[in-house]
Design goal:
Structural class of chain A: alpha/beta
Order of helices and strands of chain A: EHEHEHEHEHEEHEHEEHEEE
Radius of gyration of chain A: 20 Å
Oligomer: homodimer
Helix content of chain A: 25-40%
Shape of chain A: elongated
Distance between the termini of chain A: 59 Å
Number of strands of chain A: 13
Strand content of chain A: 25-35%
Number of helices of chain A: 8
Strand order of the largest sheet of chain A: 3-2-4-1-5
Low-confidence stretches of chain A: 242-250
Mean pLDDT of chain A: 93
Largest interface: A-B, 90 and 90 residues
Amino acid sequence: MNKIYVVGIGPGEYEQMTVKAANALRDSDVIIGYTVYVDLVKEYFSDKEFLTTPMTKEVDRCILAFDEAMKGKTVSMICSGDAGVYGMAGLMYEVGEKYPDVELEIIPGVTAATGGAAVLGAPLIHDFCLISLSDLLTPWEKIEARILHASEADFVICLYNPSSRKRHDYLQKACDLMMRYKNPETVCGIVANIGRDGEQQQVMTLRELRDTKVDMFTTVFIGNSQTREINGKMVTPRGYQAKKSYPKSK
Amino acid sequence: MNKIYVVGIGPGEYEQMTVKAANALRDSDVIIGYTVYVDLVKEYFSDKEFLTTPMTKEVDRCILAFDEAMKGKTVSMICSGDAGVYGMAGLMYEVGEKYPDVELEIIPGVTAATGGAAVLGAPLIHDFCLISLSDLLTPWEKIEARILHASEADFVICLYNPSSRKRHDYLQKACDLMMRYKNPETVCGIVANIGRDGEQQQVMTLRELRDTKVDMFTTVFIGNSQTREINGKMVTPRGYQAKKSYPKSK
């Protein structure tokens, strides 16, 4: 059976990859991915064949992977973070409908939400939403409705793709929408280059976030009504009756 | 500086742990956790000292970790999945306010949402919400509002703690709420014992999910309006104009 591993390599540094992901790459003849992600793993698997396609060529990348697998090679299609969160896993199944003889195995990884949360402290301890601000494939009205519903329901919100050259003001628009329901003093955090050179993190209020410039390599976290800053860390408690959880506390 | 690693060990099997998590456990003198999770790692780190506390004793477990660290030991507090998603990371920071001399490092892992998604196919490719159905620390009204808002905004929804002895009908209640906005034919999936012995997965409709019995070791996925079943897998496309993304497709 021809096999393709669809591998989430985590935020970036080799150490943040799961043991299973590293084993899959070791087991592969060919490693395929977006140029930037291939460069992240190349040095650790230098004996492999590497194939890359640029961004926006995701479908071609999937077809390339299936064509390599049809040659009898074991293939790893790599994604940053988790292959199943805004990653290639879904498209691989969609394109894979034309390749019934190729078996797919999805290998999960640490996505930017959980990787970034660990850098900021513990912002995602309770119910949260992931929302991408990219309107390339999703109408903005849909994104706007999600931001409003998530804010009204007091979810912690994690924003992917918060900005790009064409979308420089989207984070500001999103913050204005959130402030219809969330207090401007809500504790927020941003993390850039998670697990890579130049990793940076900052904790701030929602009002301050509104006027903060971020790039496409930044993940943004907006707390719920219970989230607080503890010694510079962004921390969301487990629930709404935290005291209840301290019966045996000193 | 006294050090505590707060480590997400992933869904269960050793291989699903990150390289960084495994290194942290190796670097530790003491590994502390809920009995069940300690048993999952014991065999791989048999030279370590292990300390456990039962469920519902989370605060005591945190205090135990800080007290061990204050003795000068390097400590790992382990959680299943990701330490920052319904995990111990938040409580460690809260309890840690009393231990300014102890440094915390959070090491992220594969949470049940992404681990389970990889088993089912690719349900979380687009915007999604995590909601815990446990009302131990969160009023049910709050949970209900989140289910309704998430459904109305067409999020993919992943449910943690879908059931327990006391809450045997909560999943049914949640499905009835979701069906106010989601089509009863919405593609859903459940995964039990992710990455452990007896892992089981099933894809079904929301209507079928409503009448399905699940246990506390099951993670539940409810698709958005675009989610479909492809050869038995649960797959959510990247957006709402998927065709747009096929310009170069064969």
